[in-house]
Each structure stands twice: as C-alpha cells, then as structure tokens.
Amino acid sequence: MTSAAEMPASSGSTLTLHSDPNNTKETDPLNKANGVYVTVHGHFYQPPRENPYLDAIERQPSAAPFHDWNERIHWECYRPNAFARVLNDQGEVVGIVNNYEHFSFNISSTLMSWLERYDVEVYQRILEADAKSSQRLHGHGNAIAQVYNHIIMPLANERDKYTQIRWGKEDFRSRFGRDPEGMWLAETAVDYATLEALVAEGIRFIVLAPSQALRCRPLPTPDRPHPEWIEVGGSQIDSTRPYRCYLKPTLDTSSSPLSAIATSPKDASTEELPYIDIFFYDGPISRDMGFSDVVYNSSHFAGRIGSAVRGDHRPAQLISVATDGETFGHHKKGTEKTLAYAFTKEFPQQGWTVTNFAHYLSLNSPSWEVELKSVTAWSCAHGVGRWEDDCGCGGEGSVWHQKWRRPLRDALNWLRDQLTEVYQEHGRQLFRDPWLARDEYIQVMRDRSATNVNRFLARHQTHKLTAAEQVDALRLLEMQRHALLMFTSCGWFFEEISRPEGTQILRYAARALELAGEVAGVQLEKGFVKHLGLAPSNVDEFKHGAEIYRQLVLTAQLGFKQVAAHYAITSLFTNQKPAETPPRKDAVDKQSQRYQKRVYCYAANELDYQLQRMGSLTLAVGNLKLVSEITWESEHLVFAVLHLGGWDFHCGIQQFTGRRDYSKLKEKLFGALKQASAAHTILAMTQLFGEEAFSLQNLFAEERHRIMRLLSQETLARLGQLYTQAYRDNYGVLMAFHRDELAVPQELQVAADIALGHRCLMTLRSLEQEIADPQKSWNHILELEAIATEAKHLRCRLNIPDGKQMLEQLIARSLWQLLHDANGSFNADIQLLERLIDVGDQLNIDISLQRSQELYFSCLQSQIALVCITSVGNEADNQCLQLLKLGKKLAVDVSSISNQLK
C-alpha cells in the first residue's frame, strides 16, 4: 500500500503535527485562522444487532471466521485505526498512530456500547483521542455526537426528534465528559424542523452533503444589507467555508422551502434569529475516498486534497471530506496506514493544519449564510424517499422493487402512535412527567445497576412505587426504547424487507408490542400484522411483511421458559456439584448467592439443584428464580432435564407452586429414573410438565454451539486417532509421492493434515500450561519445530485457529514479562521468545504480531532506549543488542536507537 515506501528507513518514531518552534500566537494556525486546514470526518456506525430479548449479539455465520459483523469490522477497522502503523521502506513500524486523535469522527451510541463491552482498550483509545485533540485544539475535541439510534430525523415526529437528540447528547456526555458541539444526523437527513430541534438542544453545528444546499449569500451587513443569493442547488456550494443557517429565511420567501414562515423585517437583523452553523463536505473528494483508489496512497490522497485548495488569497480555508469510517480498513483494507501517514507527515509537510469542525469554527465564524432544500439526505437523490418509498435507491441494479417501504413505514408509524397512547395513559400513573422520564431513561440505559435504577425511579415517580409498579414502569420505558429502535434507518436502506436489517427492526416492534400487552393488556399485534400484509416482499417464500413477521420474528421470541430451559440443559455441562438435600431455611440466601449466575440479561438464582445418573441417563431437577436485569420482572420456575446421551435432551419447565409440590415432583422423577428406562422417565416428565418440551435446539445459539463442540470431542478424538494411525502407517508412501512429485491421494493428504494439526494443537496446549517451566517449554518448542519441518516436507496445511490464537497470546505474554518482570532470567527469556516467534513463522499458520508490536513500540523510547543508552559493560551491552534484535524480529524500526549507539 500506501505510504510505506514514502518514509525513509532512518526516520524516527516520534510523530508530531506542529513542530515549528518559531510559531507565535499571532501566526500559529491553531490560535488564529491562517492558511489551509484539513478535516477528515469518519462516520463510524453499526446498526443495533442485539437480540431484543437477550441484549446481546448472537453468532452471525456470514461474518465467519468472526463471531459477528461487529467483531469482524472491529478487527478490520476500529482497532487498526486505534493502532495505525506508519511503515518505512522495509515494512518496519516507525510509528503507531491513534487515528482518532486526528479524525473528526462520530461513533454511534450502539457501537460505542458494544466497544465498551468487547474491547475496552480500543474504547479507551477513542476517549483518550478526543481528550488529546481537545487539549491540542484549545478545548474542541474531535468527537461529535449522533442522533441516538440512526433514525431518519425528517420522518420522525417532533417528540421522537427531541428524544433522539437528547439521548445522543447524554450518551456522548457520559462517555467523553463534555457537551457535544456538533451532531451527526443519520444519512445527513435534514429538514428545518430537525434544525429547530437541534438549535433548541444547544447543538452548534452539523455536517451535510453539498447537494443539500439550495442557495447561499454573504451575511448581510449595515454596509451591504441586501446581498444577492447565489443558487447552488446542483452541489456548486463552496465547501471550503462554514455557513450560518437561520431557522427563518430572511428574504424572498416565495422561493424558499420555508415560505410559510414569517421573515425578519430587516435582513441586517438576522443575528437576532436562531441559527445553526453548517459545514458542507467536499463532495467529489469524499466520493473518491469511497469509490476510487485515492486512499490507498497517502501522496495521492494529499494531492487530491490539494486540488480543492482555492487560490483566491483568503486568509483561511477548510478542505473537509467525510465518508463512512469503515472505509478505512474494512471496505478498503490497510488504508488506516494511509491516513496515519497523511495526518502525521504528508499534510504537515504541505503546510496544512489538521483540525476538526468545532476548532475551525472557533477561529473562523461564518461570513456566509445558506438555505437548505426542504428535505434531503446524502444517500438518496429523492429527498428521504429511500426510507419511505419505492424510489429505486438501494436496488444497485437489482430487478427487485421497494414497494414494501411505504407500507412498512405506515405500519411502524401506526404502531408508534398506538404505543404512545399506552405510554401516556399508564405512564402518567407512575411518572410525574412520562416524556421527561423517557428522555432521561438514557441514564438507565447507560447504567442498569439497581442503585442507579432506584435513583431514577425515585426522581420521576408520582408516588412510592410498589415492586409490581416498578416492573410496569420499566416495561413502559423499554417499550418506548424499542419503539425508537424499530425506526433504525437500516431497515429501509436496501432492496428487500426480509433482509436481516428489516427483520431486526420488526423484532424490536414485536418486543414493544409484547411489553405493551404485559402492562396494559392491549392486543395490538393483529392490527400491526394487518398493516405488514400490505408490504410486498420480493421473495416468493415470504410474499409480504406479515409472513416475514410470522416466520422470522415470532419464531425468535423468547420468554422465561426458554431462559430456564437454556439454564437447565447448560447445567449438565458446568460441572457444578448438585445439592444433596434442599437447603435449610436459614441457608437459602447463602445458597442463592452461591448459585447465582447470569444468563445474558437475566439473573438466575438457583435455589435447589439435584442430579443423578443411571447408566447412560442423566437427570437434573432444579428450582430456579429468574429476574430480568432490564425490566426487573421475574419468574419462579421448576425444571427437569433428561440427557439420554449424545444429542438427545428432554427438558420440562413449569411454575414453582410450593416446596411440597416440588418435593413430590423430584421424588416421582428420580423414582422413574431408577428403573433405568428412558421411555419411563420421559413419560413421567410428560405427566408432570405437560406436552411442551425443550431440547438442545431450544438453547440460545452461543451455548448450543459450545455444547455441540463438547459432545463432539469424544468423536473427534477418536477420528483424530484413526487419522494419526493412517498417517503413521503410510508415512513412507506419502514421502514417496512427494519425492517423485506425484499427486498425493486426497485421503492420505487429509490424514497428514489432520494428524499434524492435531499434534501441533496438543503441543501448543501443553506449552501454554507449562510455559513457566523453561525445560518443558524448550521441549515443546523443539516438538513444534519438528512438526513444522514435517508439515513443510509433506506440504501440509495446518488449520488450527485455536492454536494460532494460543501462540499469539503466548508471544505477547512472554514479551510483557520480558519488558516488565525484572525477576526473570533475561537471556533465557528472550531466547525463548525469539524461538516462539520463529516457530510461528515455521508453522505457517499466519500468526499476527500486532499486539506484540504495540507492546514493544510503547516501550521503545522509554525502557528499551534507557537500557541501551545507559548500558555499561558486556552484560548490559548484550541486553541492549538482544532487545534491538528482538525489535527487528517484530518488524519494528529500531534505527533511532541503534544509530545513537554507533
């Protein structure tokens, strides 16, 4: 790619944007508008993918080999941009740049919540980047907020507009520790009603596409009170300056999109009108970033940016570009390196100042005003038709129609209005101001601890709520949360309603319907499904939205019984000791605490559990209390699960009706088990629990896959032995085929691949367990080297992803101990580490040394440099040389230190 060859090998690893010591306050572009400024804005966003019932993302096979698409894009984009490499012409790391320190960026609240749970290191890098940029740019951080869950604001009603803005602001404030100055609108969709809400909520600026502007002019002044408007409706607006947009147009209302709104009597008095400032990104360059090769090379990228610089001798101008943040690393692999080099070297060498919108606005207040077209977005040429009409956008040449869009929008609008009535009627009985409670519910969404929820309820309740009323209050608020999530823009973005995005928003709708029924007893589903029946699908199997709802949404609904069945079947594989007798009354609390577990967003309090085996049969019976951590609703249930061996499970769930009934149930079931008859035991379970039964298929996908792997281990081990024996028996034959360059029979080659892969994995597991024992570690490494040699001779492909991950972690752990644990034996430890790296290359399993590179690089200019510069005597000199050699092995440029030692 990129800038790798553009940086000389001798370049240092300390990267700065403004290193000119002669800058004064008067000429420093960070203090006074002076010269060319560059802003690259990344809109980082992933749609909410969480199961509405579990508050977690389940495995998505299409994202393989990753767990889900959030995880895949994270490793391709979000993490690489937090640790973006700058390389020299040998491909060695000379700098690791946090691109978020130089980006202008917004990251959706849903994505930030996921990052906070999944990779706190990257999450913290993003927060630190905003803090550092704020420090560098005089209090103006790079991060801007976003409307909460990416709804199309012009299509939202007024109340939802405000909640989206308020949730976005509060989520931003709770993470970045400051109020947002700007806000990103989903798809940059905007109308004047949205601007009014933004201004009322204190948002200073937004970013739009140039095609969204209608006309502009210099701001009126006393000397020039009636400047002429310039029509720019064809994307001709000059994007190098900010604009002021007044909520009421100031003249010529006959051609204004707000012609019905009264105007100010004098153009020169516009400062008295409410306004918001707007930046328009450079359209052609932004398109090139997404759809050409310009971002694969930093000099080409800088050249493209430079082509937009205006030579009209204005004191300052801003070249701003914007695109999906996922472009850098996910859509265009490796381009985070282009940005890192451009931000820290290419742009400063051009004399340009890397900044963000808020900082530029602080230096250069708008001198022009703009009027917008009535309703627009950046990704639809038909206003916002993409999210409500069969406008053709999203088809991408497909013959499929989008006639389903309008009926889907109508169905959700109808449901929203019905849910509003439910919320107002029942919410006013519980909340002093139901809509204020909804707006502030974001504080609970960010922190669901009992203390915080109780504090929230105490602040908003009309009276001291009973436990049942607390549950209803939280149900109502969750109903409203899902009513907003169901409008997430992705549901309309593509060409078919049955895609995962459309199905997801229907699942949110179904959850909102369910919660409304639980609180108010209303049955809205029939009416909603009737509306969905008017949304035609392109897929014959589904016909219309109502059938999609029945097949893909209703089948995914979960309740307490499914959670209990999941717990019951999983309990057979958690190796917990069963309670031999029911706990004493005075020990119930301790017992509950001892067996309290979490099943996704449910707290599971196991009050009793007994397990017995009879031959191949295993029976477990338990008494369980489940509590939703979101709505606080609970169920007290009894379960029994019978494992017949292999993949066969039979599970029954029922309400707990008292200790006496529970004792009788246990007695009957374990009595039936003593007859060692599966049929007899299942019959007893059916009599006690009824016909409804749960099996392995009813487990939530994540745990089902884990248990499937556990159940397969014995079979796989047996097959591994067979393949290993076949490989050993035919080793000479295999070598003969390879020696004579003949095609090896597939059966023999597969046997070799599997046998060596299995042997390698077992050795790596042993190494992981015994890494602290030097002698055993060396023996395992020698074995791995022998496996690598054997695999090379036989041209084997070792497909061991678990082994790859183990080796990467072993290398990173060993490096950390080498750099931070002074008690170790340096010479032995570094030799072991080097051999681990070498064996990773020899095994040809594509190990990644990125984490180790980052660790080494973070210590290079401090600990490692200190060791080398202060080294005296053969031993210290030897340590220095070995550390520098290790850096070369990790592909880190150490020339800045080695040159000082010459």
Description:
The protein has 902 residues and is an alpha/beta fold. It has 4 domains: 4-19 and 34-216 and 237-245 and 271-372, 7-stranded beta/alpha barrel, CATH 3.20.110.20; 401-556, no CATH class; 560-698, no CATH class; 705-848, no CATH class. 47% of the residues lie in helices and 13% in strands. The protein is built from 31 helices and 19 strands. A 6-stranded mixed beta sheet has the order 7-11-10-14-8-9, with helices on one face. The chain has a 5-stranded antiparallel beta sheet with strand order 15-16-17-18-19, sandwiched between helices.
- Uncertain segments are 1-21, 250-266, 576-594
What is the count of distinct domains? 4
Overall pLDDT = 90
Sheet bearing the most strands, described?
6 strands, mixed
As a percent range, the share of strand residues is 5-15%
CATH topology of the largest domain: 7-stranded beta/alpha barrel
What structural class do helix, strand and pairing data support?
alpha/beta
Return the CATH architecture of the largest domain. Alpha-Beta Barrel
List the strand order in the largest sheet: 7-11-10-14-8-9
Query: What's the number of extended β-strand segments?
Result: 19
The coarse silhouette is: globular
Q: CATH class of the largest domain, anyone?
A: Alpha Beta
What gap, in angstroms, lies between the N and C termini? Answer: 32 Å
Helix count equals 31
* Overall helicity: 40-55%
Rg for CA atoms: 32 Å
List the helices and strands and how they pair.
Layout: E1 35-44, H1 69-82, E2 84-87, E3 93-97, E4 104-107, H2 109-118, H3 120-136, E5 145-146, H4 158-176, E6 183-184, H5 192-200, E7 205-208, E8 213-218, E9 230-231, E10 243-246, E11 275-280, H6 283-291, H7 298-306, E12 316-324, H8 335-349, E13 353-354, H9 357-363, E14 368-372, H10 405-427, H11 434-440, H12 442-446, H13 450-460, H14 467-485, H15 490-493, H16 500-520, H17 525-532, H18 545-553, H19 560-571, H20 588-594, E15 596-599, E16 602-614, E17 617-628, E18 634-645, E19 648-655, H21 659-673, H22 678-689, H23 701-729, H24 731-739, H25 746-769, H26 774-793, H27 801-820, H28 826-843, H29 850-869, H30 874-889, H31 895-898
Parallel strand pairs: 1-4, 1-12, 1-13, 5-6, 7-11, 10-14
Antiparallel strand pairs: 2-3, 8-9, 8-14, 10-11, 15-16, 16-17, 17-18, 18-19
Helix pairs in contact: 2-3, 4-5, 4-11, 7-8, 10-14, 10-16, 10-17, 14-16, 16-18, 17-18, 21-22, 23-25, 25-26, 25-27, 26-28, 27-28, 27-29, 28-30, 29-30
